[in-house]
Amino acid sequence: MSRPADTGPGFRTGAFDHIDALDVIAFVLFVATLLAIWTEVQPFASLQDYAAIDDTTRSNGFRKAVTILLVMTSGGLVLARGRLTTLMQFVTVPLILVVGWFALTSLASSNAGLALNRLALAMCVIFVAASLPLMVRNLDACISALGVAVTAMIAGCFLGVLLAPELAIHTVKDVSEQTLAGDWRGIFAHKNELAAMTNPFVFVGILIARVRNLVWGLAIIAASLFLMVMSGGKSALLLIVPVLMIAFSMVRIRSKVIAFLAVFGFLGVVLTLTLGSVAFTGIHNALASVMPDPSFTGRTDIWQLAMDAIGKARVAGYGYFTFWDTGLVYGTASSDATAALASHAHNGYLETALAGGLPGLALVLVWAAIMPWRNIMSLRSLTGSSAEKAFLDFLAQIWLFGLLISCLEAVLFNRGNPTWFTMVIAIACLQYWVRAERIVR
Known about the structure:
Structural class: mainly alpha
């Protein structure tokens, strides 16, 4: 299938012929950018240093500098590729409404400076994620770069456990959450981050096995599953099979209605089993004998606190990601409430509503849930090569996992969260791909 030359990796296939200096630079920076944001520019962070985690509102000059550098390099490479027009296509009306609404609610919040600062970081991360697919020459280069980045992350996790276990495994010496002692966190700051990212790692492994090299792909899958188990991440472990099954089905089912019900019906079931058990007494009583703790880790008190807080600020919320660490939480919780000590809501939908109210949550869902689903539906019958089919499966898996893990972790629209960053890359690829197909037709 013939496609325009400036449409990015999801839309051109081919071998690595005629590789030039720009291709090499783009490949290296693609991998380096993934590693930087996946580790949140703090690999093997110490959890035994009070000073490092005492004030969560402090700015980190080094991380800010790296973020600005990533924005400049990714934007520069897109410009060098001649794909700036394609990048601008990512700026849709729903995204403009999301940014505008959260900017207004943050400006009106009691911690406007901090909220706007964090929103600016979120926009930088989205910009980098949208730029990444346009940096490399074609689909083959993109898939290979993903494989190299994931392999490096997995190797880093195992090397950390072997060479510096106090920085790669939770211990009783950690400042907080000593009950997690023994759970692996690898190169990440927390075992939940490692557990969540092992799912995208598995999806990359499947993609590599289908398109590049079977042995390499299977090795990534096996290592990722091992890390998932050692992290003790129940949510990630329980979601991987449903995600693979639903993503596979939605790309192949002819009926859009059935595909919609498969995706959003299952999402509704997970939300009912989790948040529904807290919000509705009937659901709680029905589940109590089967699932005493639908959150798996005692998060129900946190969810209840978040729901109570949202009820007090349904329209505007509390400003972008400032509720938990600026004292606002004590406007809803008592001073001795254990749930008030949480760093986030452990649910992306609640966290987004806390940040921008129910209108903000609705806008984010239109941009990050409805639009990608429409793009996947549009692309189902348009994939040509086996590599394109495998890549569409991969994008559907990443996107769907992001929606589902947000039921149990604060992933959705969460600044530099590595799972959210990966999800935005998938959203961007889907959007560019649909635009490219429209140009061809």
